[in-house]
Amino acid sequence: MRFLILGATGPSGVLLIRKTLEVYPDSTIIVFARSPNKIPEDLRNNGSLTIVKGTFDDLDELESAVQLGIDVVLSALGPVVSPSALTTHSPTTPIATFYGHLIDLLYKYNVKRFISLSTASVTDPHDKPSLKYAAIVRGVKTVAYPAYADIVAMGEVIRSKGQDLDYTLVRVPFLTNGDTEGVYAGYIGDGKIGVTLSRKGFAAFSVGEVANRKWVKAAPMISNA
C-alpha cells in the first residue's frame, strides 16, 4: 500500500503516520508538509517515508507527491484557530480550496480512497437532534467562525467535487491526548456518541477504515466508547 498523509506535523497527523506504519509495516508513506522539521526525527529517518515539502499553494509539489503512485489519502488537516478568528467573520477557506485542487489530482491519477478528518460542524442526514452538539457547533461558529466555515466548506467540496471518490469524512468531537484507541462510530443524537475522542482513537479508526470500508461515502461521528 502507498499512502499520502496530510496534516502530518500536528499531533493527530504524527499518530496517523505511526498507526499506518504499525498496521501496514511494508507500506510506503508520502508526506506532504509545509514544515517537515516538525515531524519527529525517528519518522523523518524512517525509510518508508518520502517527504515532499509544500504549502497549500504549491500545487506542482502536491502533484509531484500524488504522482508518486498512491492508493489512499489520509488527512488530519484541520483549521487552526488563531486570535484573528475571534474577530473576523469574513473568512477564506484555505483547506477546502486546497482539497479542491487535490481532488482534481486524485481523479487525474486514478486515486479513489480519501479519508479525511472532519467535525460536527459538517451535518449528515443520519444525524438526530442533540442539544449538546448543537451547543458545541454554535459555540465554534460564534467564537471561531473562519475555522467553522473552512470545516463546512471542506465537507462540501469532498461530497460534491469528490462525489466519485470513495471518501470517508471522519467527524470528531473534542480531541484529547488519551491513551485509548477504542472508539464508537455512529451519528449525532444516537444516544451513544460522546463529546471527546483521543487522537490515538482518530488515527486507529482512520487507518482501520482503509481495509474495513464500512463508511465509504459516509460521515460517521466517532468518540471514545
UniProtKB/TrEMBL annotation:
Alphabetized Gene3D superfamilies for the sequence = NAD(P)-binding Rossmann-like Domain
SUPFAM superfamilies attached here?
A: NAD(P)-binding Rossmann-fold domains (SSF51735)
Taking every annotated instance into account, which residue ranges of this chain make up the domain NAD(P)-binding?
A: 7-210
UniProt superkingdom: Eukaryota
User: What GO molecular function terms would the record report?
Assistant: oxidoreductase activity, acting on the CH-NH group of donors, NAD or NADP as acceptor
Per the record, the coiled-coil ranges are none
Which InterPro entries did the record assign? NAD(P)-bd_dom, NAD(P)-bd_dom_sf, Polyketide_Oxido-like
> What family does the entry list?
Belongs to the avfA family.
Name of this protein: NAD(P)-binding domain-containing protein
Q: What is the lineage of its organism?
A: Eukaryota, Fungi, Dikarya, Basidiomycota, Agaricomycotina
